[in-house]
Specification:
globular; about 40% helix; Rossmann fold; single chain; alpha/beta; binds uridine-5'-diphosphate-4-deoxy-4-fluoro-alpha-D-galactose; binds nicotinamide-adenine-dinucleotide; three-stranded mixed beta sheet
């Protein structure tokens, strides 16, 4: 298939491009580089031996997006492009609603206009709100706590309504849990701008000595050691889930959790990192981070039954690959 990958130079998008090319798909990338670097395109060529066609455009720009549909016969779209910093979304709600919703609407419109059959969307476990894990796809969604989460919930509605009104369009909504790790080559990985918000990139920066210590946000949750529990998933496993979703879905709207089903606490992750990489990560326990929940992990059985997909890589793989990328990434 000819697959348009928006946000294809970002963290999850770049790993998905590798897996798509490995599965003989032709990839066209659209990215405005707001949170990624053009060098990733060279890294993708090195890893796969193929240089994907690249358009540096904003996917909220309808004319620019339409020119891609005019230049290529697109069979499927995987839509990663979006802004994703929860805290920033509270400070700049309109930027988040505009970017994340207009991009989804422009791409859906083009899929209908050009008869594209498949659309895969990056959603998030955040749409479940604070509910008891394991989380299942048929649970009622709760109001999320921030504009970022709302953009995911609203995008899910826009895509569901569009697919229901257009028989030819199959939509897969993928709800990611906590993607971490990096490609085994160490060439691509998570490289956020500024001080990381998320746990794993923060841990790698502390291990490297660029940040002095990790703040562990709370040890009074009702969890194994009191620290927050999440379902960490290796980004390469996540990427493979996208290939399955776009290859399998022939009709309607399908929603899948992409997680491992295993909860890991902050301290368990930090200890696994120190042990596997034989390096110290100084930390201190501080108060809870506003908006955090104690525990969040998936029931991933639907994706296994319907897509034949399940996560294979372990926490050890995740911490080793994340560290290899950090060391390579000067
Ligand atoms: P990322 O920031 O690394 O990648 C997003 C890419 O989209 C970047 O390359 C950025 O330059 C590009 N982009 C953003 N807005 C654009 C626009 N208007 N036009 C063109 N390009 C644009 O983020 P990621 O971690 O790879 O996340 C990918 C998707 O998955 C996002 O939609 C994100 O919300 C979602 N998601 C991520 C996580 C996570 O923890 N990483 C969890 C759940 C969902
Ligand atoms: N944590 C710390 N210290 C840090 C950073 C995080 O203790 O410096 C803790 C958090 O309190 C939480 C866990 O590590 O218990 C994971 O936190 P992250 O910020 O890495 O991830 P979240 O689960 O908070 O959120 C992530 C994405 C969201 C997405 C959500 C569900 O950032 O965009 O997963 O998919 F919505």
């Amino acid at each position: 298939m000819n697959i348009l990958v928006t946000g294809g130079l970002g963290f999850i998008g770049s790993h998905t491009v590798v897996e798509l090319i490995k599965n003989n798909h032709t990839v066209i990338i659209a990215d405005n580089l707001i949170n990624s670097k053009i060098e990733v395109l060279d890294k993708l060529s090195t890893i796969t031996g193929i240089r994907p066609t690249f358009y540096q455009i904003d996917v909220t720009d309808e004319q620019a997006v339409e020119s891609i549909f005019n230049n290529h016969k697109i069979d499927g779209v995987i839509h990663f492009a979006g802004l994703k910093a929860v805290g920033e979304s509270v400070e700049k709600p309109l930027q988040y609603y505009y970017n994340n919703l207009v991009s989804t609407m422009v791409l859906s419109k083009m899929c209908v206009k050009y008869g594209v059959g498949k659309f895969v969307f990056s959603s998030s476990a955040t749409v479940y709100g604070d509910q008891l894990s394991p989380l299942k796809e048929d649970m009622e969604l709760k109001q999320t706590t921030n504009p970022y989460g709302e953009t995911k919930a609203i995008s899910e509605r826009i895509l569901t309504d569009t697919a229901n009104a257009n028989d030819g369009l199959a939509v897969s909504i993928l709800r990611y849990f906590n993607p971490v790790g990096a490609h085994e080559s160490g060439l691509i990985g998570e490289d956020p701008n500024g001080i990381p918000n998320n746990l794993m990139p923060f841990v790698t920066k502390v291990a490297k000595g660029q940040l002095s210590k990790l703040s562990v946000f709370g040890n009074d949750y009702d969890t194994i050691d009191g620290t927050g529990v999440r379902d960490y998933i290796h980004v390469v496993d996540l990427a493979k889930g996208h290939v399955k979703a776009i290859e399998k879905n022939e009709s309607g709207v399908k929603i899948y959790n992409l997680g491992t089903g295993q909860g890991t606490s902050v301290l368990e992750l930090v200890n696994a990192f120190m042990k596997a990489n034989n390096i110290e990560v100084p930390y201190e326990i501080v108060g809870r981070r506003p908006g955090d929940i104690g525990s969040c992990f998936a029931d991933p059985s639907k994706a296994e039954q319907e897509l034949g997909w399940k996560a294979d890589l372990t926490i050890e793989d995740m911490v080793q690959d994340a560290w290899r990328f950090e060391m390579n990434n000067k």
